[in-house]
Amino acid sequence: MTIDTKLPFDQEYVVNFSKENSEPAWLSELRINALASAEQLPLPKPDKTKINKWNFTQFDSHVVKSEIYQSLSELPEQAKALVDMDATNQSLYIQRNTTPAFLTISEELKANGVIFTDIFTAAREHGDLLQKYFMKNGVKVDEHKLTALHAALMNGGIFLYVPKNVEVKEPIQAIFVHDDASLNLFNHVIVVVEDNSKVTYVENYVSTVDSANGIFNIVTEVIANPNSKVQYGAVDTLAKGITTYVNRRGVANKDARIEWALGLMNDGNTISENTTNLMGDGSFGDTKTVVVGRGEQVQNFTTSVVHFGKHSEGYILKHGVMKDSATSIFNGIGKIEHGASKSNAEQESRVLMLSEKARGDANPILLIDEDDVTAGHAASVGRVDPLQLYYLMSRGIPKTEAERLVIHGFLAPVVQALPIEGVKKQLTAVIERKVK
Amino acid sequence: MAGSTLTIKELHVEIDGKEILKGVNLEVKGGEIHAIMGPNGTGKSTLSSAIMGHPKYEVTSGSIALDEQDVLEMEVDERARAGLFLAMQYPSEINGVTNADFLRSALNAKLGEGNEISLMKFIRTMDKQMDFLEMDQDMAQRYLNEGFSGGEKKRNEILQLMMLQPKIAILDEIDSGLDIDALKVVSKGINEMRGEEFGCLIITHYQRLLDYITPDFVHVMMQGRIVKSGGPELAQRLEAEGYDWIKQELGIEDETVGQEA
Ligand SMILES: Nc1ncnc2c1ncn2[C@@H]1O[C@H](COP(=O)(O)OP(=O)(O)O)[C@@H](O)[C@H]1O
Ligand SMILES: [Mg+2]
């Protein structure tokens, strides 16, 4: 079998699409060049997962226009569960398929000049600022076919910009609702936090359809400028049948901190890349990831922390539960570049297998090009410990409940790290549903 | 009838194909406290594990009954809900599950669907028992046994005992690794449970614990059998004279399992 490599959208389409959205010239140009690159460049090569037969490029629809939400009461139940319905002063963006469908911004954001808007509005109204960061130091257009295709066809996303010396207290939330089975989403989230500022951002990808055939190509860029702090939480729950490429990348400059808490709960085949580049001296990156695989899913989760700055610290913690015939590769990469002396790279990957047919593979990789550093890794793939079950059951807890406790406990360190209560509850509920 | 009765008859138990228990007979009734003493490696933990249903221990013959119920036919959790409790020599550590969540699940499993304890009442009861056992309140929110010191684990086992109120409890070396203050607290917990409704089997190899909890019966285990039984005076004699006189009396050279006389 060969997959048609011709892209379904041509330059004329891209030019028109950009024009319809009144995009600045730099973005139109970027898209046109990206489209040309997408035709040439190869697919990415996630270690240990072959994706050359996955469909990332053949699809029909590019824009799914949907009704906007006049009020939160119109949200689907799955989205309602994520938001504080009674809050009067929150910062919340909801995208419905490719349509920006709801936006509210707190007084706190307005008073401090924080920009929080959909990516099209950002391109129109804050074009110069966006251009400064868009696919520059984070994810680059020409990395491979999927980054290029992403740039050419970007059809959703947001821009969050926090100016200097602003500590945003309340978490900022985004929900991407997928309620149309024909959707193919090229979503771009870009978070820029200037010197000495702090922000917490949490996003959810929510499918309300049970299954679909779409392609989701998601890119996140987090730029943490000197001495800033970004907490980034995400829970992905995309439906069965969706093929997802999701690349979340952070750049931490001098003394900046980026902390990720990712609940990767898609039901379709997924390639997830999460990289933190510790560029500055004293920068800090922490990645916590939980995953549940079920059904016939094939997934690859590659988490990297790359140290460039001296005294930089990187931590990776990944816990995955695999059931049915699900297959997952967990690659953890701690890379210390030459010159990043006194740095510390730690990682831990644990996989819990709930069935004989499930497959899980934890690969810790340390690539160290500097002498004066510390590094460590721990990895394991195992089953639920029968002695733990015995202990719980010896107190009267039935076996299924005992297993449930052990599994939730196993995933708890990441669930607990999510900064929004509703999202935490939601993730717990999703895990509950998936491991049953 | 006051309390329940645990009856063990001619119990033989194997682990990994090796016979450890070679015909144990024992009856523990509500209101009674029994102590099983004996040197290391004589089968005491094997007995307690077999009663609770540890997956590695295989009962090859004999019977265990709780009143009229055949314990060997029950799953581990059913045994617990029927009223058995084992304070383990080495309790498991369970990451991510708080002590409080665990105990509430256990209590609710016992009370059954529709009869669950309210959260408020649960917290009040747990607080009270933790105070009684002089445990830090933050132990409720710590992950189950994770990073607990030896003494904290043992106290936590007694906390579970007091919360779950079983009919028959087996305490396997609940005294090992405890300093004298902790030993007093643990004994206080066990004595609090004492009553017509509660039967207890205390496994220890020190007389020390029995200074605080006076047993009604004392048994000595060697080579996977109970080789001698008596009253509290037996424990005192063991403390004073050690086990050699029993070995001489019975012609045993090596008391551990697998060394036939
Ligand atoms: N998991 C095990 N695997 C193999 N042998 C065991 C195991 N547990 C106990 N044994 C053996 O069974 C015998 C009795 O052990 P145990 O019941 O733990 O004794 P006690 O509690 O009296 O010290 C010992 O010889 C010990 O080596
Ligand atoms: Mg023992």
Annotate the secondary structure layout.
The complex is a heterodimer of chains A (about 425) and B (about 260).
Chain A: H1 11-20, H2 25-40, H3 77-80, E1 91-96, E2 99-104, H4 107-111, E3 115-118, H5 119-125, H6 127-133, H7 145-153, E4 156-162, E5 172-178, E6 185-193, E7 198-207, E8 215-224, E9 229-237, E10 243-252, E11 257-264, E12 270-278, E13 284-293, E14 298-307, E15 313-322, E16 327-336, E17 344-353, E18 359-368, E19 374-383, H8 386-393, H9 399-415, H10 421-435
Parallel strand pairs in A: 1-5, 4-6, 5-7, 6-8, 7-9, 8-10, 9-11, 10-12, 11-13, 12-14, 13-15, 14-16, 15-17, 16-18, 17-19
Antiparallel strand pairs in A: 1-2, 3-4
Helix pairs in contact in A: 1-2, 2-7, 5-6, 8-9, 9-10
Chain B: E1 5-15, E2 18-29, E3 33-37, H1 44-52, E4 57-66, E5 69-70, H2 76-82, E6 84-87, H3 99-111, H4 119-132, H5 150-164, E7 168-172, H6 180-193, E8 199-203, E9 217-222, E10 225-230, H7 232-241, H8 244-250
Helix pairs in contact in B: 5-6
The structure holds adenosine-5'-diphosphate and magnesium ion.
User: Biggest interface between protein chains, with counts per chain?
Assistant: A-B, 24 and 30 residues
Count of folded domains of chain A: 2
The major beta sheet of chain A can be summarized as: 10 strands, mixed
Helix content of chain A: 10-25%
Q: How far apart lie the N and C ends of chain A?
A: 36 Å
Organism (chain B): Pseudoneobacillus rhizosphaerae
Keywords (chain B): ATP-binding, Nucleotide-binding
GO molecular function (chain B): ATP binding; ATP hydrolysis activity
Protein name (chain B): Vegetative protein 296
